[in-house]
């Protein structure tokens, strides 16, 4: 899926929707987060917003999308833009789990942007300590990346 085409994305989507077992459904569903095409990612976001992917599954799928090196920031932009709808749509305890993927957005400008987003107002009701830990891990990852870039 990582280097898959839009045709393969559609095949995975069909396989997810027609899975014979819950395990196969989850396997194909999570694989959708690995595709690196903007159009496919937008389709996935639409499926989430339109409830074509269950609300109890969507936060984990978005967490996986945040870990996608090429599509992670676009996923964050989707989450930020749709924050108010997502926190209503998703189970309260899954919001901070969705945010676990922010640790992969290891660039200073992303860290600053995300910190600002969460500093403006109280964004989550459950998992405040976990969110703080996610942000700390993101900062550690940013500093590590910067140290590697400065070795040259």
Element layout with pairings:
Elements: H1 6-17, H2 22-31, H3 38-49, H4 58-66, H5 72-81, H6 83-89, H7 95-98, H8 108-119, H9 128-149
Helix pairs in contact: 1-2, 8-9
Quick summary of this structure?
The protein contains 9 helices and no strands. The chain is mainly α and 152 residues long.
End-to-end separation in angstroms reads 33 Å
| Structural class estimated from helices and strands | mainly alpha
The average pLDDT score comes to: 94
The run of helices and strands is: HHHHHHHHH
Estimated radius of gyration: 16 Å
Q: Main sheet?
A: none
The structural domain count equals: 1
Per CATH, the class reads: Mainly Alpha
Any guess at the CATH architecture?
Alpha Horseshoe
Overall morphology: globular
Which parts are unreliable, with pLDDT below 50 for 5 consecutive residues or more? Answer: none
CATH topology: Zincin-like fold
Question: What is the number of beta strands?
Answer: 0
Question: Helix coverage percent of residues?
Answer: 55-70%
